[in-house]
Structure formats: structure tokens, C-alpha cells
Specification:
two-stranded antiparallel sheet; SusD-like_N; 576 residues; cell outer membrane; Serine Threonine Protein Phosphatase 5, Tetratricopeptide repeat; SusD_RagB_dom; 3 domains; mainly alpha
């Protein structure tokens, strides 16, 4: 029991030692360090209360910014150029980037919480007569979460330490043991698969509380095995991934969510589309979804707003423009003329205009254009008054954040069918993608043969702003380094939409007429062109170039300064 008590005193060991962050803000998460395990895991409800902590605020440091900065902005889907966040757009994320550090800390925080359950809960729960079924399900949840955290760690930083039991490290009597070598990326994939295979074997088919299930684990296994297969050029892993995806699609009885316009609102929380979502609620700082604040354009549609300068990139917009009837576009990003009845309800809804001026004072500009002439809609749900109180003032909207959607598994089936090949004509694979497109109102279908690049582009539209795109590009890179880098360098990141002030004579026009002209896309906008408006460290940025060194983020300096062993080469975690 002594080691068990010690564990709760050092439950946040990984954050303190491996990420060198403070732990005071973590101590509000059950179990608190004042509790000892044998007095806490006394019932099924206590065990489930503990595993519930794995679904919410433990993910905050990851999802509040790093998730979309890496997953969407680095991937070329979100335009934003300010300060440390802008470094992701400019492909200049260094070891000193603060969001690089909080992303690493946040993911290892999830690992730490998962490990505390995996290593401490079983013996104390058994001591208190908790059923083995409850214990095993809790282990399945914790190992699922640990695997997901390591998936993001591997794809962003490549080589990283695998930590299974911090207690053994801290109680070994050797201070040097707390500093752990990095392990190889292949080892990380193997470790994830072992965790997910265990979770798939033990988790239930359903859970009314929105917790992960067998299908969640199988869907994540499909994604990890596809990634592992691409990284290691091993076709057998694609075969496994295809079978796991098939089981989810054909045996789960889960249905695709059929209303893309509300899929990212509170009403869709824990629908059958959600295989794993971070559970969000209005409450304290860290409890909710911060995207409503981070991405909202202005005060007309949000109680708090930081999103005026953010928008969908030119390349993402051009991709959507290839299919102008795609209903998903309007609910992915807003551009001129789009109307949303669920925003600004007090004023009859919200119509997006390039520029909006106070009707009673046209010299006062309330909303102005950004360089993309568009703003993000996905996950933006409005004000508290628009949502029945589902938006707070602590960056805490109540709409959940998807980590794995059912639609993703339909796409993964096609990717697994393709294997290491350049395309697929498999009717089931094509049919699965078209089922998603039909359900979501895309207004078109794909046809055979479907190339890998076409698949990536289809995924880009379906999962834009969900933190997926960078990891799709990484799989492309594993398959074909050169092609993936060419794809990244084709995204026109150094360009903005420009306006035709010269052709349109503004002299002599009334303020009201100028306001009309500001919102006349046909006469006002002349398309994009190279711009030198970007600045970084006093130097002009006209050319944002990716190469092989761009495909992994540097380990955070705060980590390597305290644990220089992480600068050494990776070692094998497995002895065989």
C-alpha cells in the first residue's frame, strides 16, 4: 500500500518531470492527492467518476490551441499570422514556440492520467470488492486514451518517450531513472496498437454516457494501422486496418449523422457520428470548447471573440469552389452572402458580408475583411443567448470536440483498401466515401479509380478545421516524400485576396455607396496575388517553403533543457 499512496503524491509526475510544467492546476481533477487509492476506488460509481476525468479538461492544453494549430494551420487550412500562432502558418514552429510546449505537456498529461488509472486502480478496486468487469472496462478506457495521446505525439514529434508506469521510475531510488530516452516511432505505433487492441477486446458495444466503446477502439486501430503501414511500408497493416474499419461500418449499427449544418453544435453531442469526442460543457476555464471564442469573427455573433484575423486559406477555398453546390462549404466557413439563422438571433439571424458598418453610423466599421475574405463557421455556435446558455465567458462552449468520427472510418476503409498502391477502384471503398458525401449533402460523388491525392483532398473538405489535415498529409509523406512536400508547397500561403481600388473610382461616392461597393465581390475583388505583408523577426516572408525537416516539430526547449537526454538518439522500447 505504501507504493500506492506514493503514486497519488506523484500522480502528475510526467507533467512535472517530463514536461517540466507546474502541477497546481491539475490537482482539481479526481482523484486528488489527499486521497489514497484504497479509500477511493470503493465502488463502480467511484471508478467511473475517475475514468470520466479522461474525457474533459485533461485534454485542454492540447485541444484549446495546439490541436488546430498543428492539425489545421500547419496543414494549410487555417490562415492566421499573428505571433506564436502564426508560426504554424509560416512553417516556422521552433523549439521555443509556447504552443509547441503546451501541446507536448497536454498530451503527456493525458498519458499521466491514464497511467494513474492503469497502474493504481485495479488492486485497490479489487480490495474493495469492485467487480472485475468494471475494472477491465476502466482499463480499456484508460488504455484507449493513452493510445490516442501517443498517436498525436508520434505524428507531431516522431520519437518520444514511452512511459507506462511513472511510479516505478520515481520509486526506483535512482534519480537518473526519471529522465527517459526517446523511443522510436515504430515502437510508438506498436505500443498504441497494443493498447487499442486491449481496449477493443474489453470495451462494451454501447455506452449511454458518450464514453468510448469497442467501435471507438476499432476505428482508432484502423487509423493507427494505416499510419503504421504507410510509415513502415508494410501492406499487412493495411489489411488489418481494412478489417477493423469494416467491422465498425458493418457491425456497429451506428449511423452517419445526416445534418452537416448541426453536426458541430451542441445538439449533435454524442450522436452515433461520435466515436470519440472530448466532452465539453459550460463551466470553469478548461471545461469547454474554446473554438467558439478562437474562431468567431466578431461581437455580432459571439460574446467573446478572437477570430477576426482567422479564416479558411485560399487553397482550401479553391478546393471547395471546384464543387460549388457542396452544402458542407457554408457550414465549414462563411463568405459573402451566407445567412445563418442560428447566429445573432436577436436581430433575425446573421448574414456574412465582407464589411459591416453600423447602419446608424456608416463611418463606424463593425466588421472588416480579412485576407481570406471568409471566416470559420465549423464549431462556431454563437452567443449564450443564441444557444440557450450553451456558451460561457471562460472559453467554454458546450459543443463537444470530435477526435474520431464515424465518417472518418468510412474514409479509412478506402485508404486501407488502397494500401500502398496509388489508387483504388474497389466498389465498396468508393461506395463508402460516396455514402458520406451523399449523407452530408456534398452534391457530387467520386468515381473509380480514386487516387491517394484525390482521397486526401476529399478528406480535407470533410474534416476541415477538425485537426485532421496535418496527419493526412503525414501519411502522404510516409508514402511519397516528394509528392507530399510538393502538395504542401502548392498551397499559396504567401498570397492574400486583393481589392481593386484603382479600377473602381471611389472618389465622389457617398459613404453609403462605398459601403455597397465594399460588399460587391464581382467588382471589388480581383483574386489573389503574391503579397509581402508577412513579417517574421523583422524580415519579410514572401515564400513559405516546406521540406523534409518541416515534417516533424522540434521538441520543446523547456523539455530538452531540463531533460537533455531527449536530445540523444532514440532507443528501442521492446527487447525483441
Amino acid at each position: 500500500m505504501k507504493k500506492m499512496k506514493n503514486l497519488f503524491k506523484i500522480i502528475y509526475f510526467l507533467i512535472v518531470v517530463m514536461t517540466m510544467g507546474g502541477c497546481d492546476d491539475f490537482l482539481t481533477v479526481v482523484p486528488q492527492d489527499s486521497l489514497v487509492a484504497e479509500n477511493y476506488y470503493t465502488s463502480e460509481s467511484n471508478v467511473r467518476a475517475n475514468t470520466a476525468s479522461l474525457y474533459g479538461s485533461v485534454w485542454w492544453d492540447f485541444h484549446t490551441q495546439f490541436m488546430w494549430l498543428a492539425g489545421d494551420e500547419l496543414a494549410g487550412d487555417i490562415y492566421y499570422t499573428y505571433d506564436a500562432e502564426g508560426q504554424f502558418y509560416y512553417n516556422q514552429v521552433g523549439a521555443g514556440n509556447k504552443f509547441n510546449n503546451t501541446g507536448w505537456e497536454g498530451l503527456y498529461r493525458v498519458v499521466s492520467f491514464s497511467n494513474s488509472i492503469i497502474n493504481d486502480m485495479p488492486s485497490s478496486a479489487r480490495l474493495n470488492g469492485v467487480s472485475e468487469d468494471v475494472i477491465q472496462k476502466a482499463l480499456g478506457e484508460a488504455r484507449f486514451m493513452r493510445a490516442v495521446a501517443y498517436y498525436y505525439i508520434a505524428e507531431n514529434w516522431g520519437e518520444a518517450p514511452i512511459i507506462e508506469n511513472a511510479t516505478e521510475l520515481i520509486t526506483s531510488g535512482n534519480v537518473a531513472d526519471i529522465y527517459v530516452n526517446k523511443h522510436t516511432q515504430s515502437n510508438l505505433y506498436r505500443f498504441m496498437c497494443e493498447d487499442l487492441e486491449f481496449a477493443a477486446s474489453i470495451l462494451p458495444n454501447t455506452d449511454e454516457e458518450g464514453r468510448v466503446t469497442k467501435w471507438s477502439a476499432l476505428g482508432m486501430l484502423a487509423k493507427v494501422y494505416i499510419t503504421r503501414g504507410a510509415y513502415e511500408a508494410n501492406g499487412d497493416y493495411f489489411t488489418l486496418a481494412k478489417e477493423y474499419a469494416r467491422q465498425v461500418i458493418e457491425e456497429s449499427n451506428l449511423a452517419l449523422y445526416d445534418n452537416f449544418s448541426s453536426m458541430f453544435d451542441v445538439e449533435a453531442n454524442n450522436s452515433s457520428e461520435s466515436l470519440f469526442s472530448i466532452q465539453c460543457m459550460v463551466g470553469s476555464y478548461g471545461d469547454g470548447n474554446a473554438r467558439n471564442v478562437n474562431w468567431s469573427r466578431g461581437s455580432r455573433i459571439a460574446d467573446q471573440t478572437w477570430g477576426a484575423g482567422k479564416g479558411p486559406t485560399i487553397s482550401l477555398q479553391e478546393l471547395f469552389n471546384e464543387q460549388p453546390n457542396d452544402a458542407r462549404r457554408k457550414w465549414t466557413y462563411m463568405t459573402h452572402g451566407d445567412y445563418y439563422e442560428n447566429l445573432d438571433k436577436a436581430n433575425g439571424g446573421y448574414t456574412y458580408q465582407f464589411s459591416y458598418r453600423d447602419p446608424d453610423d456608416l463611418d463606424t466599421q463593425v466588421e472588416s475583411t480579412n485576407g481570406m475574405l471568409a471566416h470559420i463557421k465549423k464549431y462556431v455556435i454563437g452567443k449564450s443567448a443564441d444557444t440557450g446558455g450553451q456558451v460561457g465567458t471562460n472559453q467554454d462552449a458546450g459543443n463537444n470536440i470530435y477526435i474520431l468520427r464515424l465518417s472518418d472510418v468510412y474514409f479509412l476503409y478506402a485508404e486501407a483498401t488502397m494500401g500502398l498502391g496509388e489508387s483504388t477502384s474497389d466498389a465498396t471503398a468508393i461506395g463508402n466515401i460516396n455514402k458520406v458525401l451523399d449523407t452530408q449533402g456534398a452534391g457530387y460523388n467520386v468515381s473509380a479509380p480514386l487516387s491517394f491525392l484525390d482521397l486526401i483532398k476529399e478528406r480535407r473538405k470533410e474534416f476541415a478545421f477538425e485537426g485532421n489535415s496535418w496527419y493526412d498529409i503525414k501519411r502522404y509523406y510516409y508514402r511519397d516524400n516528394t509528392a507530399a512536400i510538393e502538395y504542401l508547397n502548392s498551397m499559396k500561403r504567401d498570397q492574400l485576396y486583393q481589392f481593386d481600388f484603382n479600377t473602381n473610382n471611389l472618389d465622389g461616392l457617398s459613404t453609403a455607396d462605398k459601403y455597397v461597393l465594399e460588399n460587391d465581390r464581382n467588382s471589388y475583388v480581383i483574386g489573389w496575388e503574391t503579397t509581402d505583408t508577412g513579417e517574421w523577426d523583422g524580415e519579410r516572408v514572401n515564400n513559405i517553403v516546406f521540406n523534409s525537416s518541416s515534417m516533424y516539430i522540434s521538441l520543446p526547449a523547456e523539455v530538452t533543457t531540463k531533460a537533455p537526454i531527449l536530445l540523444e538518439g532514440a532507443v528501442d522500447y521492446y527487447s525483441e
